[in-house]
Task: structure prediction
Amino acid sequence: MFDRGLTGTDLAIGLAAFLLMWYVAGIQVNRRRAVTLVRQVRDSIQPFGGTATIRWIGRSAFRIEAEQLTPPFVRLGISVLLEPRETFFLWAFGRLGGRRDWLVIGVTLNGRVGASFEVYHPRRRGATQVAHDIREKGWREEPLAGRPPLLCAGPDADGRALARAVMSAIGGMDVWRVGLQLEAPHLILSLPVPATETRTPLPIFATLSQLAQTVLPRGPGR
Result:
């Protein structure tokens, strides 16, 4: 009665059942993950003062805008995009490419930054646009000493030197992009948030004051 082998139909039914169970479980995991990250980000920005609003973008992304902050900060724009855990093949493909829950912070300061630069990982999310912008600006690009495979680019030696100083302040934290530009948001930080990261504030927010001091060496407004 049970001696026949598996047929294509059996395999298709089994795969469909697996994908359905994965989908249901993935939605639940992402829902809990989103709640955790909202709490971590909210608690991380409380020391900056001001008011914050949150906007959900579907089930797997949200954005927080914080304004009227303690100087030298004017505004923080924070975006979080979760891994597509509900879709097995997208999740597996993304994992092979290094995809993780993605945090992007745009920092607007109340002073003029001293230089511009880009530091980025060429094989992580957002790298294609950064590389295109660097080519458009005609900036020189070089490996970042001591932090392979990160690349560093800037309009001149001052920009690249400031990039190294900022990365020194960040320390060994895993980042995908650190950019500094003359227009707001002045400082842009892109990085993964591992599921094992439970600290509050999140380490990147704990470094923001030091980063602001580094890119505004003469103090705000000068």
Remarks:
- The first helix runs from residue 8 to 45.
